[in-house]
């Protein structure tokens, strides 16, 4: 069975909606900044001494709950600026404070573990992300917290796909989908999950199943106000139709996706870039090169702006377009740039890099 090994950048982590601790939202993965609590200035937590002062109350005893909130606020601010190493540092400190304040098996600690896993995921460090998601899932299942468990199942499935563990990913997605379909059949979270599931089926060669699942996602999401989740469903449907040779049907789906993004004001997001790139590929395939090229370039600009993992694939698609239009010199230059970017990404995101919480804590206390 042929497996697609491309980056799965549009597989989306589920937001922990409605929870006290703000998590990396689906919108952050789409390319929009996650909101941060303004209660603690970022500058306050970039100073070693200020963090140390936060650890003590007037009586001189640790105020771990306040400290965990402060660390979380700082991490969210770094995350909103796409400063992932700094966000990771403070999310790890946040987890350590939660663990000491509430206990390792407390739901709050599970949510904190999910924060850490999401940042590792955004950095492309999937083994580390998998470890933290699985730890969070185990705690959530032990606590019988079904609402959080289903979200973590999605995240475990997503990282499983990235690591090529398709059987485990499928089991996680199916388990999460069963919960939604029996307990919350109209929940938009099911739509996000099905978008991920559709990409899994496409990647393992089940195009018909992928199309059916993306159609189910769209039918759920269409009952709610326009959203990026719906735009992604429509983009996937268009992509699958294009692969089946139905260019007219694909173009209709892409145009619907773009109208949806216009309605929500989300054209300049990673999902918007994906819609542009797929439409550009359709134009190129139907001999509308003049219409295709500006869309390829615009998609690349958006992906560069948000440091999107999809940028590598966007550059590959544009290089293929240049070669197809007999512009081999430009294609070679772009391929050289693509190689350099790929090497830099591997250097910036080594899969074996793990941050030690104890080292971070010692840094904060000196």
Notable characteristics:
366 residues, mainly alpha, Serine Threonine Protein Phosphatase 5, Tetratricopeptide repeat, 2 domains, globular, disordered N terminus, disordered C terminus
Helix tally equals 18
Query: Average pLDDT value?
Result: 80
| CATH topology annotation of the largest domain | Serine Threonine Protein Phosphatase 5, Tetratricopeptide repeat
Q: Main beta sheet: strand number and arrangement? A: none
Distance between the termini: 55 Å
Question: Which CATH class of the largest domain?
Answer: Mainly Alpha
Our count of domains comes out at 2
Task: Report helical residue fraction.
Answer: over 70%
Describe, in plain words, how this protein is organized in 3D.
The chain is mostly helical and about 375 residues long. Helix content is about 70%, strand content about 0%. The chain has 18 helices and no strands. The protein has helices spanning about 25-30, 40-45, 50-55, 65-80, 85-100, 105-120, 125-140, 145-160, 165-185, 190-205, 205-220, 230-245, 245-265, 270-285, 290-305, 310-325, 330-350, 355-365. The longest helix is centred in the last third of the chain and has 21 residues, at about 330-350.
């Amino acid at each position: 069975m042929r497996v697609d090994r491309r980056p799965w950048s549009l597989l989306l982590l589920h937001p922990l909606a409605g929870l006290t601790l703000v998590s990396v939202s689906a919108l952050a993965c789409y390319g929009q900044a996650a909101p941060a609590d303004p209660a603690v200035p970022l500058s306050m937590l970039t100073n070693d001494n200020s963090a140390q002062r936060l650890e003590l109350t007037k009586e001189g005893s640790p105020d771990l709950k306040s400290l965990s909130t402060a660390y979380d606020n700082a991490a969210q601010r770094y995350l909103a600026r796409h400063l992932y190493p700094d966000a990771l540092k403070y999310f790890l400190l946040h987890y350590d404070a939660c663990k000491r304040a509430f206990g390792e098996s407390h739901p709050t600690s599970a949510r904190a573990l999910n924060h850490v896993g999401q940042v590792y995921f955004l950095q492309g460090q999937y083994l580390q992300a998998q470890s933290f998601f699985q730890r969070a899932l185990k705690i959530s299942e032990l606590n019988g917290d079904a609402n959080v468990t289903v979200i973590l199942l999605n995240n475990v499935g997503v990282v499983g796909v990235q690591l090529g563990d398709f059987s485990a990913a499928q089991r996680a997605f199916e388990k999460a989908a069963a919960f939604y379909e029996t307990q919350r059949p109209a929940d938009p979270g099911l739509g996000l999950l099905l978008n991920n599931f559709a990409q899994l089926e496409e990647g393992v060669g089940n195009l018909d199943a992928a199309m059916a699942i993306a159609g189910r996602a769209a039918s759920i999401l269409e009952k709610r106000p326009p959203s990026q989740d719906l735009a992604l469903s429509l983009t996937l449907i268009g992509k699958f139709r294009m692969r089946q040779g139905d260019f007219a049907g694909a173009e209709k789906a892409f145009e619907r996706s773009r109208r949806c993004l216009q309605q929500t004001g989300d054209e300049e997001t990673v999902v918007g870039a994906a819609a542009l790139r797929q439409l550009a590929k359709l134009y190129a395939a139907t001999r509308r090169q003049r219409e295709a090229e500006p869309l390829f370039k615009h998609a690349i600009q958006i992906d560069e702006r948000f440091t999107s993992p999809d940028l590598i694939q966007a550059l590959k698609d544009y290089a293929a377009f240049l070669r197809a239009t007999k512009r081999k010199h430009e294609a070679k230059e772009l391929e050289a740039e693509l190689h350099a970017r790929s090497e830099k990404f591997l250097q910036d995101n080594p899969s074996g890099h793990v941050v030690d919480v104890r080292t971070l804590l010692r840094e904060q206390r000196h």
